Amino acid sequence: MDTWFLGIDLGTGSCKSVVVDEQARVRGFGVSEYPAATVEARWKEQDPQTMVTGMVHSARAAIDQAGLPGRSCQAISIGGALHSLVALDRSGRPLTGVITWADNRAAPQAQAVRESGQANDLYQQTGCPAHAMYPLYKIIWLRQERPDDFRRAARFVSAKEYILAHLTGRYAVDYSLAAGSGLLNTHDLNWNATSLDLASITPDQLSPLYSPREVFYGLDPELAAAMGLPVTTPLVLGSSDAANSSVGAGAVLPGQATCMVGTSGALRLIAPQPVLDARARSWCYAIDEGHWLAGGAINNGGIALSWLQDTINGAFPDLVHGSGLSFEDLLALAGRTEAGAGGLLCLPFFAGERSPNWNQNARGVFFGLTLQHDARHLARALLEGIAFRLRSVYEVLGEIGEDILQMRASGGFTHSGLWLQIVASALDRDLMVPVWGETSSLGAALWAMLGSGHLASLEDGGALIPLGSEYHPIPEQVATYNRLYRVYTQLYDAVLGAFDQIAGLQQAIG
Questions:
Q1: How far is residue 181 CA from its own chain's centroid?
Q2: Among positive and negative, which fits the CA dihedral 501, 502, 503, 507?
Q3: CB 59 within 8 A of CB 226
Q4: What is d(CA 210, CA 463) in angstroms, rounded to the nearest whole number?
Q5: What's the burial of 486, exposed, middle or buried (CB within 10 Å: 0-12/13-18/19+)?
Q6: What distance in Å separates the CA atoms of residue 183 and residue 127, rounded to the nearest whole number?
Q7: Domain annotation for the chain: domains and CATH numbers
Q8: Which of 230, 232, 250, 504 shows a CA-CA span of 20 to 30 A to 39?
Q9: pTM to 2 decimals?
Q10: Tens-digit pLDDT profile for residues 449-486
Protein backbone atom coordinates (compact mmCIF):
# COMPACT_ATOMS: atom_id res chain seq x y z
CA MET A 1 0.00 0.00 0.00
CA ASP A 2 1.38 3.44 -0.99
CA THR A 3 2.12 5.79 1.91
CA TRP A 4 1.56 9.46 1.18
CA PHE A 5 1.20 12.93 2.69
CA LEU A 6 -0.88 15.96 1.73
CA GLY A 7 0.42 19.53 1.87
CA ILE A 8 -2.01 22.42 1.41
CA ASP A 9 -0.93 25.99 0.66
CA LEU A 10 -3.75 28.37 1.55
CA GLY A 11 -2.57 31.35 -0.46
CA THR A 12 -3.92 34.83 -1.05
CA GLY A 13 -5.36 34.32 -4.52
CA SER A 14 -5.63 30.54 -4.67
CA CYS A 15 -5.16 27.28 -2.79
CA LYS A 16 -2.58 24.76 -3.98
CA SER A 17 -2.26 21.20 -2.75
CA VAL A 18 0.39 18.55 -3.30
CA VAL A 19 0.55 14.82 -2.62
CA VAL A 20 4.02 13.43 -1.88
CA ASP A 21 5.44 10.02 -1.05
CA GLU A 22 7.88 9.11 1.73
CA GLN A 23 10.79 10.57 -0.25
CA ALA A 24 8.90 13.87 -0.76
CA ARG A 25 8.45 13.09 -4.45
CA VAL A 26 5.39 14.81 -5.91
CA ARG A 27 2.64 12.39 -6.91
CA GLY A 28 -0.26 14.78 -7.45
CA PHE A 29 -1.03 18.50 -7.59
CA GLY A 30 -4.21 20.56 -7.51
CA VAL A 31 -5.03 24.26 -7.58
CA SER A 32 -8.25 26.22 -7.04
CA GLU A 33 -8.59 29.98 -7.35
CA TYR A 34 -10.87 31.97 -5.05
CA PRO A 35 -13.60 33.85 -6.92
CA ALA A 36 -13.95 37.57 -6.15
CA ALA A 37 -16.44 40.23 -7.15
CA THR A 38 -13.75 42.70 -8.20
CA VAL A 39 -10.01 42.75 -8.87
CA GLU A 40 -9.56 44.89 -5.72
CA ALA A 41 -11.53 42.43 -3.58
CA ARG A 42 -9.41 39.56 -4.89
CA TRP A 43 -6.36 40.98 -3.14
CA LYS A 44 -7.77 42.89 -0.18
CA GLU A 45 -10.82 41.31 1.49
CA GLN A 46 -12.03 37.86 0.55
CA ASP A 47 -15.03 35.71 1.40
CA PRO A 48 -13.75 33.16 3.94
CA GLN A 49 -16.16 30.51 2.71
CA THR A 50 -14.63 30.60 -0.78
CA MET A 51 -11.32 29.73 0.86
CA VAL A 52 -12.85 26.65 2.49
CA THR A 53 -14.24 25.61 -0.89
CA GLY A 54 -10.92 26.32 -2.60
CA MET A 55 -9.06 24.16 -0.09
CA VAL A 56 -11.42 21.24 -0.63
CA HIS A 57 -11.27 21.48 -4.42
CA SER A 58 -7.48 21.77 -4.61
CA ALA A 59 -6.92 18.92 -2.16
CA ARG A 60 -9.34 16.65 -4.00
CA ALA A 61 -7.72 17.49 -7.35
CA ALA A 62 -4.26 16.59 -6.00
CA ILE A 63 -5.47 13.33 -4.48
CA ASP A 64 -7.36 12.37 -7.65
CA GLN A 65 -4.33 13.12 -9.80
CA ALA A 66 -2.14 10.98 -7.55
CA GLY A 67 -4.62 8.11 -7.81
CA LEU A 68 -3.82 6.93 -4.29
CA PRO A 69 -6.34 5.61 -1.75
CA GLY A 70 -7.33 8.05 0.97
CA ARG A 71 -6.76 5.46 3.69
CA SER A 72 -3.03 5.50 2.85
CA CYS A 73 -2.64 9.17 3.75
CA GLN A 74 -0.40 9.36 6.82
CA ALA A 75 -1.02 13.04 7.60
CA ILE A 76 -2.02 16.39 6.13
CA SER A 77 -0.80 19.91 6.91
CA ILE A 78 -1.93 23.38 5.92
CA GLY A 79 0.26 26.41 5.32
CA GLY A 80 -1.44 29.78 5.61
CA ALA A 81 -0.67 33.16 4.06
CA LEU A 82 0.82 35.59 6.55
CA HIS A 83 -0.89 38.72 7.87
CA SER A 84 -4.55 37.85 7.20
CA LEU A 85 -7.29 38.71 9.69
CA VAL A 86 -10.90 37.66 10.23
CA ALA A 87 -12.99 38.88 13.18
CA LEU A 88 -15.46 36.28 14.48
CA ASP A 89 -18.46 36.61 16.78
CA ARG A 90 -19.19 34.25 19.68
CA SER A 91 -20.78 31.74 17.31
CA GLY A 92 -17.73 31.69 15.03
CA ARG A 93 -19.46 33.68 12.30
CA PRO A 94 -17.29 36.17 10.40
CA LEU A 95 -17.84 39.85 11.12
CA THR A 96 -15.37 40.76 8.38
CA GLY A 97 -14.03 39.15 5.26
CA VAL A 98 -10.48 37.83 5.16
CA ILE A 99 -8.48 41.07 5.27
CA THR A 100 -5.23 40.22 3.46
CA TRP A 101 -1.69 41.59 3.64
CA ALA A 102 -2.41 43.78 0.60
CA ASP A 103 -5.10 45.81 2.40
CA ASN A 104 -3.70 49.13 3.61
CA ARG A 105 -6.74 50.43 5.48
CA ALA A 106 -4.75 50.47 8.74
CA ALA A 107 -2.05 52.81 7.42
CA PRO A 108 -3.11 55.69 9.72
CA GLN A 109 -3.00 53.37 12.74
CA ALA A 110 0.52 52.18 11.88
CA GLN A 111 1.60 55.78 11.32
CA ALA A 112 0.21 56.78 14.70
CA VAL A 113 2.31 54.10 16.40
CA ARG A 114 5.42 55.31 14.57
CA GLU A 115 4.72 58.88 15.65
CA SER A 116 4.16 57.77 19.25
CA GLY A 117 7.72 56.49 19.52
CA GLN A 118 6.61 52.92 20.27
CA ALA A 119 7.51 51.43 16.89
CA ASN A 120 11.11 50.50 17.66
CA ASP A 121 10.26 48.80 20.98
CA LEU A 122 7.48 46.85 19.26
CA TYR A 123 9.87 45.80 16.50
CA GLN A 124 12.47 44.58 18.99
CA GLN A 125 9.77 42.60 20.82
CA THR A 126 7.86 41.16 17.86
CA GLY A 127 10.22 41.35 14.87
CA CYS A 128 7.49 43.25 12.99
CA PRO A 129 8.02 46.82 11.73
CA ALA A 130 5.07 49.19 12.15
CA HIS A 131 3.10 48.63 8.94
CA ALA A 132 -0.55 48.36 7.96
CA MET A 133 -0.22 44.77 6.74
CA TYR A 134 0.09 43.39 10.27
CA PRO A 135 -3.14 42.24 11.94
CA LEU A 136 -2.23 44.23 15.06
CA TYR A 137 -2.95 47.45 13.18
CA LYS A 138 -6.00 46.03 11.44
CA ILE A 139 -7.50 45.26 14.86
CA ILE A 140 -6.79 48.83 15.98
CA TRP A 141 -8.46 50.05 12.77
CA LEU A 142 -11.51 47.90 13.49
CA ARG A 143 -11.75 49.27 17.03
CA GLN A 144 -11.58 52.85 15.82
CA GLU A 145 -13.55 52.65 12.56
CA ARG A 146 -16.07 49.84 13.20
CA PRO A 147 -16.55 49.87 16.98
CA ASP A 148 -19.76 47.83 16.89
CA ASP A 149 -18.01 44.95 15.08
CA PHE A 150 -15.03 45.28 17.42
CA ARG A 151 -17.27 44.95 20.48
CA ARG A 152 -18.97 41.90 18.97
CA ALA A 153 -15.66 40.23 18.07
CA ALA A 154 -15.02 37.28 20.37
CA ARG A 155 -11.98 36.11 18.43
CA PHE A 156 -9.46 37.37 15.87
CA VAL A 157 -7.98 34.71 13.57
CA SER A 158 -6.09 34.24 10.34
CA ALA A 159 -7.59 32.56 7.30
CA LYS A 160 -5.74 29.36 8.18
CA GLU A 161 -7.16 29.33 11.71
CA TYR A 162 -10.65 29.78 10.26
CA ILE A 163 -10.08 26.79 7.98
CA LEU A 164 -8.64 24.67 10.81
CA ALA A 165 -11.65 25.39 12.98
CA HIS A 166 -13.90 24.12 10.18
CA LEU A 167 -11.72 21.04 9.71
CA THR A 168 -11.10 20.10 13.34
CA GLY A 169 -13.55 22.09 15.46
CA ARG A 170 -10.60 23.68 17.29
CA TYR A 171 -8.84 27.01 17.16
CA ALA A 172 -5.05 26.80 17.05
CA VAL A 173 -2.23 28.90 15.62
CA ASP A 174 1.37 28.00 14.87
CA TYR A 175 4.23 30.25 15.94
CA SER A 176 4.96 31.52 12.45
CA LEU A 177 1.45 32.75 11.65
CA ALA A 178 1.23 34.23 15.13
CA ALA A 179 4.58 35.96 14.64
CA GLY A 180 3.33 37.49 11.41
CA SER A 181 0.48 39.22 13.24
CA GLY A 182 2.61 41.66 15.22
CA LEU A 183 1.08 40.19 18.38
CA LEU A 184 3.70 37.55 19.30
CA ASN A 185 6.89 38.12 21.24
CA THR A 186 9.53 36.61 18.97
CA HIS A 187 11.85 35.88 21.91
CA ASP A 188 9.63 33.97 24.36
CA LEU A 189 6.95 32.79 21.88
CA ASN A 190 4.05 34.14 23.95
CA TRP A 191 1.47 36.76 23.06
CA ASN A 192 3.14 40.14 23.46
CA ALA A 193 1.68 42.27 26.27
CA THR A 194 2.50 45.61 24.61
CA SER A 195 0.78 44.55 21.40
CA LEU A 196 -2.31 43.33 23.25
CA ASP A 197 -2.55 46.62 25.12
CA LEU A 198 -2.30 48.59 21.88
CA ALA A 199 -5.02 46.48 20.27
CA SER A 200 -7.19 46.55 23.43
CA ILE A 201 -7.71 42.79 23.29
CA THR A 202 -7.00 39.88 25.63
CA PRO A 203 -5.17 36.60 25.00
CA ASP A 204 -8.43 34.64 25.08
CA GLN A 205 -9.50 36.51 21.94
CA LEU A 206 -6.59 34.86 20.13
CA SER A 207 -6.02 31.19 19.39
CA PRO A 208 -3.86 28.96 21.63
CA LEU A 209 -0.24 28.81 20.45
CA TYR A 210 1.29 25.51 19.30
CA SER A 211 4.42 24.10 17.73
CA PRO A 212 4.09 23.45 13.99
CA ARG A 213 4.51 19.73 14.77
CA GLU A 214 1.35 19.61 16.89
CA VAL A 215 -1.05 16.90 15.67
CA PHE A 216 -4.85 17.12 15.73
CA TYR A 217 -7.26 14.25 15.20
CA GLY A 218 -10.85 14.10 14.03
CA LEU A 219 -11.59 15.80 10.70
CA ASP A 220 -15.01 17.16 9.92
CA PRO A 221 -16.82 14.25 8.19
CA GLU A 222 -18.32 16.34 5.39
CA LEU A 223 -15.10 18.14 4.51
CA ALA A 224 -13.02 14.98 4.82
CA ALA A 225 -15.35 13.10 2.47
CA ALA A 226 -15.28 15.98 -0.03
CA MET A 227 -11.48 15.86 -0.06
CA GLY A 228 -11.37 12.06 -0.24
CA LEU A 229 -9.84 11.45 3.20
CA PRO A 230 -10.84 9.36 6.23
CA VAL A 231 -11.94 11.40 9.24
CA THR A 232 -9.14 9.73 11.21
CA THR A 233 -6.40 11.31 9.08
CA PRO A 234 -3.98 13.20 11.38
CA LEU A 235 -3.68 16.93 10.77
CA VAL A 236 -0.26 18.42 11.56
CA LEU A 237 -0.57 22.12 12.38
CA GLY A 238 2.33 23.19 10.16
CA SER A 239 3.48 26.73 9.49
CA SER A 240 3.01 29.83 7.35
CA ASP A 241 3.35 29.95 3.59
CA ALA A 242 6.53 32.02 3.97
CA ALA A 243 8.26 29.50 6.21
CA ASN A 244 6.98 26.67 4.03
CA SER A 245 8.40 28.32 0.94
CA SER A 246 11.90 28.10 2.41
CA VAL A 247 11.36 24.61 3.84
CA GLY A 248 9.98 23.33 0.53
CA ALA A 249 12.93 24.85 -1.33
CA GLY A 250 15.29 22.98 0.98
CA ALA A 251 16.83 26.25 2.21
CA VAL A 252 17.00 25.26 5.87
CA LEU A 253 20.73 25.38 6.63
CA PRO A 254 22.81 28.43 7.67
CA GLY A 255 23.89 30.41 4.61
CA GLN A 256 20.98 29.23 2.46
CA ALA A 257 18.39 31.79 1.36
CA THR A 258 15.19 31.66 -0.64
CA CYS A 259 14.22 34.23 -3.25
CA MET A 260 10.46 33.99 -3.75
CA VAL A 261 8.19 35.71 -6.22
CA GLY A 262 4.52 34.82 -6.21
CA THR A 263 1.70 37.30 -5.64
CA SER A 264 4.19 39.26 -3.56
CA GLY A 265 7.90 38.63 -3.22
CA ALA A 266 10.47 37.97 -0.52
CA LEU A 267 14.07 37.17 0.19
CA ARG A 268 14.53 35.22 3.43
CA LEU A 269 16.61 32.74 5.36
CA ILE A 270 16.17 30.44 8.34
CA ALA A 271 18.32 31.24 11.38
CA PRO A 272 18.83 29.48 14.73
CA GLN A 273 18.04 32.66 16.67
CA PRO A 274 16.11 35.92 16.11
CA VAL A 275 17.76 38.23 13.55
CA LEU A 276 16.81 41.90 13.99
CA ASP A 277 17.91 45.09 12.25
CA ALA A 278 18.65 48.21 14.29
CA ARG A 279 16.81 50.23 11.62
CA ALA A 280 13.81 47.85 11.43
CA ARG A 281 14.16 47.38 7.66
CA SER A 282 13.69 43.60 7.85
CA TRP A 283 11.36 41.32 9.81
CA CYS A 284 11.89 38.21 11.90
CA TYR A 285 9.21 35.55 12.52
CA ALA A 286 9.54 32.50 14.76
CA ILE A 287 8.97 29.11 13.13
CA ASP A 288 9.49 26.86 16.14
CA GLU A 289 11.60 26.85 19.29
CA GLY A 290 14.84 26.56 17.32
CA HIS A 291 14.23 28.27 13.97
CA TRP A 292 13.42 31.85 12.95
CA LEU A 293 12.58 33.18 9.49
CA ALA A 294 14.38 36.46 8.78
CA GLY A 295 14.26 38.63 5.71
CA GLY A 296 12.20 41.16 3.87
CA ALA A 297 9.09 41.06 1.72
CA ILE A 298 7.94 43.25 -1.14
CA ASN A 299 4.28 43.92 -1.84
CA ASN A 300 4.63 43.80 -5.58
CA GLY A 301 5.47 40.50 -7.22
CA GLY A 302 2.96 38.79 -9.49
CA ILE A 303 0.31 41.25 -8.32
CA ALA A 304 2.12 43.96 -10.30
CA LEU A 305 2.14 41.81 -13.42
CA SER A 306 -1.57 41.16 -12.77
CA TRP A 307 -2.12 44.91 -12.76
CA LEU A 308 -0.52 45.24 -16.21
CA GLN A 309 -2.48 42.24 -17.46
CA ASP A 310 -5.80 43.60 -16.17
CA THR A 311 -5.04 47.08 -17.50
CA ILE A 312 -4.35 45.86 -21.03
CA ASN A 313 -7.16 43.34 -21.07
CA GLY A 314 -9.61 45.85 -19.65
CA ALA A 315 -8.82 48.29 -22.45
CA PHE A 316 -8.58 45.67 -25.19
CA PRO A 317 -10.74 42.69 -24.14
CA ASP A 318 -10.54 41.06 -27.57
CA LEU A 319 -6.79 41.52 -27.99
CA VAL A 320 -5.86 37.83 -28.07
CA HIS A 321 -8.47 35.48 -29.51
CA GLY A 322 -11.15 37.00 -27.29
CA SER A 323 -9.48 35.82 -24.07
CA GLY A 324 -7.00 38.63 -23.46
CA LEU A 325 -3.31 38.53 -22.68
CA SER A 326 -2.14 35.81 -20.31
CA PHE A 327 0.80 35.98 -17.90
CA GLU A 328 2.77 33.97 -20.44
CA ASP A 329 1.94 36.50 -23.16
CA LEU A 330 3.25 39.35 -20.99
CA LEU A 331 6.44 37.44 -20.20
CA ALA A 332 6.91 36.73 -23.89
CA LEU A 333 6.52 40.45 -24.58
CA ALA A 334 9.17 41.25 -21.99
CA GLY A 335 11.50 38.74 -23.60
CA ARG A 336 11.33 40.56 -26.92
CA THR A 337 13.48 43.44 -25.69
CA GLU A 338 16.95 43.59 -24.17
CA ALA A 339 18.02 43.88 -20.54
CA GLY A 340 17.39 47.38 -19.29
CA ALA A 341 14.12 47.79 -21.23
CA GLY A 342 15.60 50.49 -23.42
CA GLY A 343 16.40 52.65 -20.40
CA LEU A 344 12.87 52.46 -18.97
CA LEU A 345 12.62 52.12 -15.18
CA CYS A 346 9.68 50.97 -13.09
CA LEU A 347 9.14 51.61 -9.40
CA PRO A 348 6.62 48.77 -8.98
CA PHE A 349 4.74 50.06 -5.94
CA PHE A 350 1.21 49.41 -7.19
CA ALA A 351 0.28 47.98 -3.78
CA GLY A 352 2.51 50.23 -1.69
CA GLU A 353 5.86 49.10 -0.33
CA ARG A 354 7.10 46.86 2.45
CA SER A 355 10.82 46.10 2.95
CA PRO A 356 13.13 47.84 3.29
CA ASN A 357 11.49 51.29 3.58
CA TRP A 358 7.96 50.33 4.72
CA ASN A 359 6.44 53.19 2.76
CA GLN A 360 2.69 52.75 2.52
CA ASN A 361 2.43 55.87 0.36
CA ALA A 362 4.77 54.55 -2.35
CA ARG A 363 3.10 54.42 -5.76
CA GLY A 364 3.88 52.86 -9.13
CA VAL A 365 6.11 54.87 -11.46
CA PHE A 366 7.36 54.34 -15.02
CA PHE A 367 10.32 56.65 -15.62
CA GLY A 368 12.15 57.38 -18.83
CA LEU A 369 9.32 56.80 -21.31
CA THR A 370 9.94 57.96 -24.88
CA LEU A 371 8.18 57.49 -28.17
CA GLN A 372 10.48 54.53 -28.80
CA HIS A 373 9.03 52.53 -25.88
CA ASP A 374 6.07 50.17 -26.19
CA ALA A 375 4.34 47.35 -24.30
CA ARG A 376 7.45 45.16 -24.51
CA HIS A 377 9.46 47.70 -22.55
CA LEU A 378 6.68 48.24 -20.01
CA ALA A 379 6.53 44.51 -19.29
CA ARG A 380 10.31 44.11 -19.02
CA ALA A 381 10.78 47.24 -16.89
CA LEU A 382 8.14 45.93 -14.49
CA LEU A 383 9.94 42.58 -14.09
CA GLU A 384 13.26 44.37 -13.62
CA GLY A 385 11.74 46.77 -11.10
CA ILE A 386 10.58 43.81 -8.99
CA ALA A 387 14.10 42.34 -9.20
CA PHE A 388 15.56 45.65 -8.01
CA ARG A 389 13.26 45.59 -4.96
CA LEU A 390 14.56 42.11 -4.14
CA ARG A 391 18.09 43.47 -4.50
CA SER A 392 17.33 46.16 -1.92
CA VAL A 393 16.27 43.46 0.55
CA TYR A 394 19.35 41.39 -0.28
CA GLU A 395 21.57 44.36 0.52
CA VAL A 396 19.89 44.84 3.92
CA LEU A 397 20.50 41.21 4.89
CA GLY A 398 24.15 41.65 4.01
CA GLU A 399 24.38 44.82 6.09
CA ILE A 400 23.01 43.11 9.21
CA GLY A 401 25.59 40.37 8.92
CA GLU A 402 23.75 37.50 7.24
CA ASP A 403 26.20 35.76 4.92
CA ILE A 404 24.23 34.20 2.07
CA LEU A 405 26.18 31.37 0.47
CA GLN A 406 23.44 29.84 -1.67
CA MET A 407 20.27 31.29 -3.17
CA ARG A 408 17.27 29.13 -4.08
CA ALA A 409 14.19 30.21 -6.03
CA SER A 410 10.57 29.54 -5.17
CA GLY A 411 7.11 30.68 -6.18
CA GLY A 412 5.37 31.20 -9.47
CA PHE A 413 8.30 32.95 -11.14
CA THR A 414 10.17 29.63 -11.23
CA HIS A 415 8.02 28.82 -14.28
CA SER A 416 9.66 31.65 -16.24
CA GLY A 417 13.25 31.28 -17.39
CA LEU A 418 13.28 34.95 -18.37
CA TRP A 419 12.22 36.18 -14.92
CA LEU A 420 14.69 33.87 -13.17
CA GLN A 421 17.50 35.16 -15.36
CA ILE A 422 16.55 38.78 -14.69
CA VAL A 423 16.67 38.19 -10.93
CA ALA A 424 19.98 36.27 -11.09
CA SER A 425 21.62 39.09 -13.04
CA ALA A 426 20.02 41.88 -10.97
CA LEU A 427 21.27 40.27 -7.73
CA ASP A 428 24.53 39.14 -9.35
CA ARG A 429 24.03 35.77 -7.66
CA ASP A 430 23.59 32.21 -8.88
CA LEU A 431 19.98 31.14 -8.53
CA MET A 432 19.21 27.46 -7.95
CA VAL A 433 15.74 26.21 -8.82
CA PRO A 434 14.26 23.19 -7.01
CA VAL A 435 12.74 20.57 -9.29
CA TRP A 436 9.35 21.34 -7.74
CA GLY A 437 8.77 25.08 -7.91
CA GLU A 438 5.59 25.27 -5.79
CA THR A 439 7.66 25.08 -2.64
CA SER A 440 5.04 26.40 -0.18
CA SER A 441 2.74 23.43 -0.77
CA LEU A 442 5.72 21.06 -0.67
CA GLY A 443 6.87 22.66 2.60
CA ALA A 444 3.42 21.99 4.06
CA ALA A 445 3.76 18.34 3.06
CA LEU A 446 7.13 18.16 4.83
CA TRP A 447 5.48 19.36 8.05
CA ALA A 448 2.98 16.50 7.65
CA MET A 449 5.96 14.16 7.44
CA LEU A 450 7.65 15.80 10.44
CA GLY A 451 4.58 15.81 12.67
CA SER A 452 3.75 12.20 11.91
CA GLY A 453 7.28 11.03 12.70
CA HIS A 454 8.40 10.21 9.17
CA LEU A 455 11.09 12.92 9.34
CA ALA A 456 13.24 13.76 12.34
CA SER A 457 14.13 17.38 11.55
CA LEU A 458 13.73 20.28 9.14
CA GLU A 459 17.28 19.64 8.04
CA ASP A 460 16.38 16.05 7.09
CA GLY A 461 13.47 17.42 5.08
CA GLY A 462 15.73 19.87 3.27
CA ALA A 463 18.00 17.02 2.21
CA LEU A 464 15.08 15.47 0.28
CA ILE A 465 14.65 18.47 -2.03
CA PRO A 466 16.30 17.91 -5.43
CA LEU A 467 17.58 20.86 -7.42
CA GLY A 468 16.99 21.29 -11.12
CA SER A 469 18.12 24.18 -13.28
CA GLU A 470 20.57 26.91 -12.29
CA TYR A 471 20.67 30.50 -13.50
CA HIS A 472 23.96 32.36 -13.47
CA PRO A 473 24.45 36.13 -13.75
CA ILE A 474 25.19 37.24 -17.31
CA PRO A 475 28.06 39.77 -17.10
CA GLU A 476 26.61 42.14 -19.71
CA GLN A 477 23.25 42.16 -17.90
CA VAL A 478 24.93 42.65 -14.53
CA ALA A 479 26.70 45.74 -15.84
CA THR A 480 23.45 47.15 -17.25
CA TYR A 481 21.51 46.45 -14.08
CA ASN A 482 24.19 47.97 -11.85
CA ARG A 483 23.95 51.22 -13.81
CA LEU A 484 20.15 51.20 -13.77
CA TYR A 485 19.96 50.30 -10.09
CA ARG A 486 21.90 53.44 -9.19
CA VAL A 487 19.37 55.55 -11.09
CA TYR A 488 16.55 53.50 -9.57
CA THR A 489 17.63 54.29 -6.00
CA GLN A 490 18.18 57.96 -6.86
CA LEU A 491 14.73 58.12 -8.42
CA TYR A 492 13.13 56.61 -5.32
CA ASP A 493 14.78 59.19 -3.06
CA ALA A 494 13.81 62.01 -5.41
CA VAL A 495 10.07 61.21 -5.39
CA LEU A 496 9.65 60.40 -1.69
CA GLY A 497 7.90 63.67 -0.95
CA ALA A 498 5.77 63.37 -4.06
CA PHE A 499 4.62 59.91 -2.91
CA ASP A 500 3.16 61.44 0.26
CA GLN A 501 1.50 64.27 -1.65
CA ILE A 502 -0.09 62.07 -4.30
CA ALA A 503 -1.28 59.57 -1.70
CA GLY A 504 -2.97 62.38 0.17
CA LEU A 505 -4.60 63.66 -3.02
CA GLN A 506 -5.80 60.18 -3.94
CA GLN A 507 -7.37 59.78 -0.52
CA ALA A 508 -9.05 63.18 -0.77
CA ILE A 509 -10.36 62.53 -4.28
CA GLY A 510 -11.59 59.10 -3.23
A1: 13
A2: positive
A3: no
A4: 25
A5: exposed
A6: 10
A7: 1-81+212-249+455-465 (3.30.420.480), 85-157+173-206 (3.30.420.40), 302-433+474-509 (3.30.420.40)
A8: 504
A9: 0.91
A10: 999 999 999 999 999 999 999 999 999 999 999 999 99
